[in-house]
Amino acid sequence: MGLHCIKACPFGDTNCALNPVHIITYTLLSLPYFIDFRAPVEIVFLRTVVAAYPADPRRATNIFFEITSADEQFSFDVQRRFHQNKIMGVVRQVKPIIGPRDLEVTVAMNYVKSGAISHQNVVVIRIFISEF
Q1: Domains of the chain
Q2: pTM, whole model, 2 decimals?
């Protein structure tokens, strides 16, 4: 399940226009309690349409992924990868979490052009870890 909120600034609202957040996406995820946790588990794939190998890298848009909030044990990370010639982010569970537990992980997708953030998309992931 997911929900997307797209920014639509009222005419003349400079605070809104200057805020780099363009889209906020909310998603829900239910995971089992991994008893035998030996390696990171890839749980969310953040696909983009940005070229991994642009023709002119000096003028290209780049994307950097950053976890801006998570649990206090830092049980998640995000990796930047290339898939089908596009940049993508992979959110991973890197530590075992004893369930049942509800968590929220927020990931910022920073779009960078000419060395500055042109805009940002935010992904809020609500995660339920089951008892079994």
Answers
A1: 2-129 (2.60.40.60)
A2: 0.89
